[in-house]
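thread: overnight batch results

M.L. [08:02]
morning all. the overnight job finished for the chain we discussed friday. pasting input first so we're all looking at the same thing
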Amino acid sequence: MDVMNDLWAALALVLVIEGLLPFVSPRFYRQSAQQLSALSDRAIRMIGLAVIVVGLVALSFIRG
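M.L. [08:03]
and the structure it wrote out:
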């Protein structure tokens, strides 16, 4: 069950990290959300894909 504990810990850290920007700078967060909403679906998907790839590469370095 170590894998499940790691998964829950990772998800908890995602929530903490996601909450940092709106907590620290709500104005910047609001402006960023407005700019993001102006992008096309394709552009948002490409950003999402880039974030996934960066996350997987980072994870592979961290996990060795």
